[in-house]
C-alpha cells in the first residue's frame, strides 16, 4: 500500500503539471522531474523487497545487486541535484527577478534537469564499475537492499578497495558542494527577503516547502550513511531495517504532498490531485481484494464471494462519478448530454441499490452460519450465492433502466 500510494501521489502530480498549461513554468518542471526521480528510485527498492516478503529465501544475483545499488545511489544523487536547481530557481526569482525568464527558460530547465540526472547516473556507474572489478570472499549482505559500501566491504583484499574509497569520497564531495550551493543560495534569499514584506510572503509561499523537502531528504540520507558506516550491533534489527528504508519511503511519499500541494495553489488543481489519488486508491484496494479472492482457492466460500461482488459493485459505482468529475475539474465548462446524465443517474442509483442488496445477502449468510449452522452449506452453496447476487443486481439495474427509459421517452415527447 505504501508503494502504491507513493506511485499514485507522484504520478498524479506529474499528470497535473503536464495537463495544466498554467504550470508549464521552470519551478513546476523541476517538481515534475523530482517526482519522476522518486518513481525511478522507489522502483529500485520496492519490487525486490515485496518479493522477498513473499519468499522464504532472500537472494539476489550479483548483477541484480549492482543494478539495485546503482539505481538507489543515482536516485539519491539526482534528488540532491534537482533540489540544488530548485534553490537556484528560487534565488533568481527573488534576488534577480529581471533576469529570471532569460536565464531560467522552460527549455533550459529541462536540459539542465536531464543533464544533472545523466551526470548522477554516470558518476554512480563509475563507482559501481569499480566495485564490479573487485573479488569478493562472501555472498552475504546484512542489509535489506544492496548498497555499494556493503558490497565493497566483502572484498577479499582490503588494499584493493583504495581506488573505490577515493572515487566514493570524490562523489561525496561533489554532492556536498551541491549542499553548500543550496546554503549559499538561501543566504542571499533570506538577506533579500528580510528587507521586504512582499519578499517575505514570497519566501513563505515558495521557499518553505522546498526547505522542508530538502531537510527531510538530507536528514534521512545522513541517518542512512551514519547507520551504514557505523552500524551498531546493539540496535534492534527492526530499528536498523527502518533506518535503512526511511530515505526510500519518507521523501518520495511526503515531498509530493508537502511541496506539490503548495505549488499547485489553484484550488481546482488541489481538488483534482486529491480526487485522483482518492479514486486510484479506491480502484487499488477493491481490485486487490477481488484478485485475492479469485486467486486463493481457500476463499471460494459464500461470504468471500459476496465480498468480491461488493468490491466489483464499488468499482462499477465509482466509475459513474469520478471520471466525469475529474474531467470537469480540468474544464472551465461543466456540461453533460441528456443521455449521459441519465446513464450516470442509472449507474449511481443501481450501485447504491445493489450495495444494499449485497449487504442484505451478507446479513442472511451470517444469520445462517451462526443461527442455523447445520443448514448453512445446503442453503448457501457457491452457485446459489452467485445466482442470488446476479438476480438482485439484475433487478436493481432493470428497475432503474425502465425509469430512465420512461424519463427519456417523456423528454422526446415534450
From TrEMBL:
It is a multi-pass membrane protein. Its main location: membrane. The chain crosses the membrane at residues 6-23, 28-46, 66-88, 109-134, 166-188, 208-226, 238-258, 270-295, 342-364, 385-408. PROSITE patterns: G_PROTEIN_RECEP_F1_1, G_PROTEIN_RECEP_F1_2. One of its GO terms (cellular component) is plasma membrane. Residues 9-259, 285-414 form the G-protein coupled receptors family 1 profile domain. It holds the Pfam family 7tm_4. One of its GO terms (molecular function) is odorant binding. SUPFAM superfamilies: Family A G protein-coupled receptor-like. Keywords: Cell membrane, Disulfide bond, G-protein coupled receptor, Glycoprotein, Membrane, Olfaction, Receptor, Sensory transduction, Transducer, Transmembrane, Transmembrane helix. It comes from the Eukaryota. It is found in: Cell membrane. This is G-protein coupled receptors family 1 profile domain-containing protein. It comes from Gambusia affinis (Western mosquitofish). The lineage of its organism: Eukaryota, Metazoa, Chordata, Craniata, Vertebrata.
